Amino acid sequence: STTGQDFKVADLSLAAFGRKEIKLAEHEMPGLMAIREEYAKEQPLAGARVTGSLHMTVQTAVLIETLVALGAEVRWASCNIFSTQDHAAAAIAVGPDGTPENPKGIPVFAWKGETLEEYWWCTEQALTWPNTPTGGPNMILDDGGDATLLVHKGVEYEKAGKAPSVDTAENDEHRVILQLLNRTLGENAQKWTQLASEIRGVTEETTTGVHRLYEMQQAGSLLFPAMNVNDAVTKSKFDNKYGCRHSLVDGINRATDVLIGGKTALICGYGDVGKGCAESLRGQGARVLITEIDPICALQAAMDGYQVVTLDDVVDQVDIFVTTTGNKDIIMASDMAKMKHQAIVGNIGHFDNEIDMAGLAAIPGIVKDEVKPQVHTWTFPDGKTIIVLSEGRLLNLGNATGHPSFVMSNSFADQTIAQIELFTKPESYPTDVYVLPKHLDEKVARLHLDALGAKLTTLRPEQADYIGVPVEGPYKPDHYRY
Ligand code: NAI
Questions:
Q1: Which of 4, 157, 172, 141 is nearest to 78 (CA)?
Q2: TM spans, by residue (predicted)?
């Protein structure tokens, strides 16, 4: 690791490898590259200080360098302890013009396999801007809402004059957050309040982070405007679905190399992520079962040809379990006790509370063994073993390298456009949660057609009149579901 410098990554000598993969990724990310070209002169993010909390991968490196190309200054942390690609982090720390001996990149705080203390320290570093008026960013780019959460909790406790005692913590992670905020309150009782005062907005990447934003908006506690990037059509209907269709099997294969064909797989949740995961495993010849709580999604699953079941009814017959719900307590320790020998258990939802890892660890006599990083066997007292991927954290980023570049080009083009919107038009976005205007969503899709050889039909003016849309779009009403 590096010390004495304004970044922390695992190994700077990986930078050249990271740079080569960034180069390859740029060609696969036509949306981001087109945005760089379009805004090269205008520099719409000049003056922006963007704190990013998002998986530090090769694709994210292309996003970061796009923000910089548009004029932004950037500080970055990963949004998961296992998701950093160390060569991508090294390349970002070194920068295109630097060397490992003379790094000239951006302050990035991320490595694969952080502890929870390190994770929250990294988030704090990304949010702490030396030599600036408020000591903080004026924009946040978030994935899952942890950076936004730290600022909001900090402000809440500063208003109250103290943070709750660490003894009140509900779990390990909560304890770490309370420790951190008790410390900052001691150091500077206005740190987060000052910092929040200059934040123009946050753009949020994922379903789970968006839930948190709407909760704060409803509670009246949201401190700055937020762009729900997840619900751009070119994000959730592509990244969540086609991204997971690619990276779910990638994660399972790299972790276990088990033959998927012929196995019985259970996907918990049939939302956007669940749909991609189900297709992914069916594509490999698995027999796929689905659990759902929503009758609409359950009916979709049935019509797509999957059997809709309850976990209880099938728990002893399934070879591969995958949770995709964004909800908690989906697979409990008592369920895992009933599974087949060498059943594989993984989660692809944002947080690690879908699988009851604490309950599993608390089973008397259970033995955990590391096969390799992010792959563990848990052996029950009766000798039965299950295989848990990424300790219950999102397995496509823990066991593999997350979504491939082309799909992330859509998500990150949405992110970049959302950053430009909130940063350059604060008067249009009073504090609330927004989605991208549809013409921008359509623009992002348009930027990706050429690369796939897709040729769009142009609407004739009479046809446009007939269906009541402008020739240049938007083509659908806001309530259209795709
Ligand atoms: P979604 O809301 O479209 O789908 C979740 C589904 O789970 C819903 O249909 C819901 O009815 C169902 N569900 C909720 N509780 C359930 C229960 N107890 N049993 C069975 N089903 C239940 O959300 P989306 O977009 O599919 O995202 C799911 C999670 O994945 C979120 O945490 C999101 O942040 C995360 N995500 C992860 C990605 C990755 O690369 N690992 C990529 C995109 C999203």
A1: 141
A2: none
Percent of the chain scored above 90 by pLDDT? 99
What's the 61 CA to ligand 1 centre distance in angstroms? 26
Q: Residue 207 CA: which ligand 1 atom is closest?
A: 34
Q: How far is the CA of 148 from the centre of ligand 1 (A)?
A: 21
Backbone angles phi, psi at 183, to 5 degrees: -65, -50
Q: Report how far residue 442's alpha carbon sits from residue 448's, in angstroms, rounded to the nearest whole number.
A: 10
- The distance of Cα 377 from the centroid of its chain, to the nearest Å, equals 26
Q: Is 269 in the pocket of ligand 1 (CB under 6 A)?
A: yes
State whether the Cα torsion 199-201-202-208 is positive or negative: positive
Rounded to whole angstroms, the Cα distance separating 6 from 128 reads 11
2 pLDDT higher than 50? no
Q: What is the mean pLDDT of residues 261-287?
A: 98
Residue 308: beta bridge partners? 290
Chain segment 394-433, per-residue pLDDT in tens: 999 999 999 999 999 999 999 999 999 999 999 999 999 9
Output the CA torsion 131→133→138→141 (10° steps): 30
Does residue 249 line the site of ligand 1, with CB under 6 A? no
- Determine which helix (DSSP H) or strand (DSSP E) holds 386, and give its type and residue range: strand 385-389
Provide the annotated active-site residues: 55, 78, 83, 143, 205, 230, 235, 239-240, 244, 350, 403, 411, 415
Nearest CA to ligand 1 atom 3: 271
Which atom of ligand 1 approaches the CA of 272 most closely? 26
